[in-house]
Structures are given as structure tokens and as C-alpha cells.
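Task: sequence design from structure.
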């Protein structure tokens, strides 16, 4: 064992890109994994990479769990569009009438929740134009979580010069543009936004195929850096995504809550598409990635190793966050230490399957996120 280690952590380690459980130790020096060694361990601690939550909307943390089909205030929420479609979905109405500092406070609470439940990085699709992006940055502050902000114009139906002016202001403060879908905006406007985003060397992401597949082909024609949802993708769409090497971020719990169906995740993976996972709108779901994993394993029937890869390593790769989502020498430490002796995890037969199928946030002993 190296004498240059600043910190040594022992336990069962979920190592590398294959997530093989190994009894041993990790040495950290200046927050970097400098050594991984094998040795017998009886600590009961399981050391795993932290999650990367690849798609969130945390601005709507100010309004949690409105019920579809019920009256919320003066609004009746009948379907997905009335809940989240811009510019007049319930979410957007609430964001417009909520004070800036209240939005920042609620977002910060959600970010703290992500950190304590094992997420070390996230991508947020920010409503509200440049003000929404600035609110997100203020909410993150000094919390030390990895993040990407995908902004969008607040008034997409304005004159083209005004929209592109706002896109420019957004991109000065954000990592890219993330729009709700080609059916929500004039396609000519969308293409101009994409062109300008590319010129600024920023990322472009788009929701597609969530309610139906009417927007999928147009979304693919934009050559996005990532697609969100793709719940209704058919075999032809999947082949086009694979040929174009476009990754997809799926949101299983969100899609169940809104009743839009189940994304063909197995088919996507078999086609060689890189698939990440997000928790989507906080108004519908917590940011608990353990819950996403359990659904992916037990309902979609995916291999547990594949599930963990989607929720950690794939997310980091899709978002361009090098070193996130795996435990390897040279990576920064983004680790969660779980209690393998907890009432929940004791007697699990395989550490990785135990994490994927039954672990909960209360099994976390500590988080190391440099």
C-alpha cells in the first residue's frame, strides 16, 4: 500500500467500467484515486461510484406532486401538455409567478437532496431564459456538485432577432440549449437556434418521442448531442439513432407518472445506443436515482450491471464529464460508501445487484465528492 495516500478507504469496491466487486482499498491523494488494491475486507462497507442524473428540471421544485386529473389552484391538470408544455403549462405559470429567490431556495434544496442521495453530477433543463440559468447557478453556489445547464429562450414565439438575442445571453451563462420539442416551436426558429448554438460551440439537446413519435424524425434531423425520452421510438427510429450515434436519456418513473408509456430501452441498448437516465421534473418525482435503478432492473428486466452503467458512467460520458461514474486510478473521487450491514443490505448475495435492486439513500454512510 502506498505511503503517499492522504486517505485510505477499505471495503468492497465496485471497480472500473465493468463494475466488478473487489474486496480491497482505495488510496486518495489530493482528491484523486491514486491506487486501488485488493486485500481481504470485513468492514461491510460497499464503495461505489456516485450517480450522474442526466436529465432534471429542478426549477419546479416549488410545486411538488400536482395530481393529473385534479384541480390545482384554479387549474385542472388533465394531461402532460397541461402540466409541462411551454409556455402555458402549469409548471410555466407557476415559475412566472414565483419570486426569484423562492425558486433559488427550492432548487438549492433539491441539489442538496441529490448530493445526500448519491448524485455527484446532473444536467438541468432550465426554463426561464437567462434568468432561469442564473437562478440555477446561484442555487448551486459552492455545493461542489458537477452540473450542466441547458437553457432555452423564455419567449420562443417572439421575433427571430429577439429570440436569438436571448439565446446568445443564455449561452453566455449555460453549457447549451435544451428545448422541449420541435412541436412546441416553429421549426424554422428551432433550426436557427441550433445553428447559432453550434457556432458558439455549445451543446444542443431536445425532448422527442415522449407523447407520440410525431416529432422524432424532425428532432433527429437536427443532429442533437442527446435526445430525451424517446418513449415512442420504433425500430426505424432506433436504427437512425444508432447510425447517427446520438445518445438517449430515459426517464422511467416520470414516463410512468405521466402515462406516456415505456421507452424501448432494451432495443436501444441492443442497437448500440448509449443510454443515460434522468429523474426529470421534480414536481413529479424526487431526484432519487436508487428508485430509477430498481424500476430498470425489476420492470424493464435489464441486467444489473447495465442498469448501474446507465445511471453512472453512461451519464458522465453523455454529458462530457470525464472521470465521473467509475472508480479508476486517475479519476477524481466521486464515491458513495454504503452500509452493507444495514438491515436492508445485510445478506445480499452480490454487492452490485444489491445496490441496483434494493439499496436506498438511508443505506449511504457517507459521500466523497471532490
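Answer:
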Amino acid at each position: 500500500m502506498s505511503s503517499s495516500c492522504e486517505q485510505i478507504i477499505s471495503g468492497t469496491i465496485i471497480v472500473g467500467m465493468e463494475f466488478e466487486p473487489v474486496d480491497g482499498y482505495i488510496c486518495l491523494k489530493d482528491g484523486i484515486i491514486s491506487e486501488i488494491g485488493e486485500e481481504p475486507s470485513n468492514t461491510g462497507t460497499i464503495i461505489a461510484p456516485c450517480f450522474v442524473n442526466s436529465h432534471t428540471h429542478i426549477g419546479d421544485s416549488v410545486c411538488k406532486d400536482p395530481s393529473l386529473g385534479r384541480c390545482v389552484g384554479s387549474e385542472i391538470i388533465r394531461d402532460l401538455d397541461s402540466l409541462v408544455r411551454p409556455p402555458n403549462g402549469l409548471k410555466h405559470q407557476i415559475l412566472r409567478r414565483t419570486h426569484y429567490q423562492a425558486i433559488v431556495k427550492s432548487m438549492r434544496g433539491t441539489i442538496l437532496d441529490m448530493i445526500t442521495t448519491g448524485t455527484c453530477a446532473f444536467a438541468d433543463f432550465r426554463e426561464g431564459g437567462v434568468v432561469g440559468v442564473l437562478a440555477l447557478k446561484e442555487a448551486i453556489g459552492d455545493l461542489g456538485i458537477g452540473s450542466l445547464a441547458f437553457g432555452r429562450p423564455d419567449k420562443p414565439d417572439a421575433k427571430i432577432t429577439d429570440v436569438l438575442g436571448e439565446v446568445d445571453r443564455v449561452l453566455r451563462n449555460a453549457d447549451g440549449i435544451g428545448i422541449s420539442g420541435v412541436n412546441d416551436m416553429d421549426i424554422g426558429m428551432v433550426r436557427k437556434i441550433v445553428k447559432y448554438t453550434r457556432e458558439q460551440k455549445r451543446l444542443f439537446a431536445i425532448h422527442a418521442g415522449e407523447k407520440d413519435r410525431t416529432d422524432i424524425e424532425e428532432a433527429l434531423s437536427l443532429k442533437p448531442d442527446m435526445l430525451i425520452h424517446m418513449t415512442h421510438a420504433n425500430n426505424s427510429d432506433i436504427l437512425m439513432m444508432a447510425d447517427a450515434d446520438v445518445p438517449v436519456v430515459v426517464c422511467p418513473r416520470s414516463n410512468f407518472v405521466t402515462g406516456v408509456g415505456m421507452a424501448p430501452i432494451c432495443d436501444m441498448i441492443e442497437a448500440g445506443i448509449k443510454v443515460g437516465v434522468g429523474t426529470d421534473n421534480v414536481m413529479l418525482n424526487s431526484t432519487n436515482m436508487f428508485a430509477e435503478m430498481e424500476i430498470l432492473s425489476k420492470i424493464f428486466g435489464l441486467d444489473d450491471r447495465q442498469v448501474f452503467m446507465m445511471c453512472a458512467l453512461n451519464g458522465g460520458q453523455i454529458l462530457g464529464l470525464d472521470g465521473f461514474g467509475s472508480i479508476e486510478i486517475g479519476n477524481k473521487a466521486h464515491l458513495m460508501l454504503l452500509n452493507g450491514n444495514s438491515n436492508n443490505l445485510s445478506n445480499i448475495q452480490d454487492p452490485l445487484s444489491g445496490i441496483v435492486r434494493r439499496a436506498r439513500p438511508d443505506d449511504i454512510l457517507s459521500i466523497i465528492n471532490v
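The chain is about 35% helix and 25% strand.
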